[in-house]
# Entry
Amino acid sequence: MTEMVYGSMPSRVAEPVLPRWWRTIDKWTLTAILVLFGIGLLLGLAASVPLAQRNELDPYYYVQRQAAFGGMAIFVMVAISMMSPEMVRRLGVLGFGLAFMALALLPVFGTDFGKGAVRWFSFGFASVQPSEFLKPGFIIVSAWLVAASGDLNGPPGKALSFALAVTIVLFLALQPDFGQAMLVLFGWGVIYFVAGAPMLLIGTILGLTGAGGFIAYNSSEHFARRINGFLTSEVDPRSQIGYATNAIQEGGFFGVGVGEGQVKWTLPDAHTDFIIAVAAEEYGLVLVLVILALYATITVRSLYRLTRERDPFTRLAGTGLACIFGVQAMINMGVAVRLLPAKGMTLPFVSYGGSSVIAAGITVGMLLAMTRSRPQSQMSEILARGRR
# Structure
């Protein structure tokens, strides 16, 4: 009877997943990520061959592994970017729980690979660094808790997220891995700041962080050695920083030429922590500026798109993910040019490392999911134009 009077309701045809994903994804950010991965493979061809020769392996052994890890990372990134923020939240909470348990078990089952910091689980054919996978999960959990604290009768999310951050920092400090600890604390601080934290409280937290650094300097030989090496006026030319600084100076604007660089033969971590030194020496300042522009594009465009987001969880989680991604890149490059103390932190999508590149894929996959175009964002733009 209703249909006879009012007519039948037209049925909505659901848009296929892939076309909808392609229509709503930030294509500039996606392109920048793929270009970074391509640059990483290009630099890996130069930086990892000497290491393969020292270990009596096939010359392109590490490049092939990086390509395999990168393929997995791209697949994971695309799959996660197709999810809704609610699905990303569930995935983040589950991933955080698993990574946190793995982090807690590191003192018992972990290894340091002779580097003085127990950060990895070794499985013979591969190794896993739990802290890399912990970061995106922690950002999701913290954003969820902080956003929920704003609901009526919501939980004390800000206090709970801070307690969680402090617990993780303590676990990381025991490895020791002060670089990742500071990155986790920074990510929580960004979320708390965007949520509207009072400046007095933020200042107090910064003061406590400084006090923690002072205690670490006086109690950890590993931490003190890196700080002293950074503060000294003279750089040992045979140290990693010395080799990296010299390589960057030798590269100049246009580099010494493809395959002509020497730093890859002397730096043991040329394919990981100091990959930017290889780029600067062989390709010069030009490629370094391109890499900087790509990271800036990913970070700034993501933050800009998030300004139109009305859902608190999506806005907080996306902001935290974008900031830790960009700051990790800044820290890696800052160490290579001696603007920051040595941290042992990789350059996302460019440095060699299975845990690093797959965790970066998870991070940017979540970020792409948070920054996809949604009807509420388009409506807010229309309303904003109507007020003018």
About this structure: The radius of gyration is 23 Å.
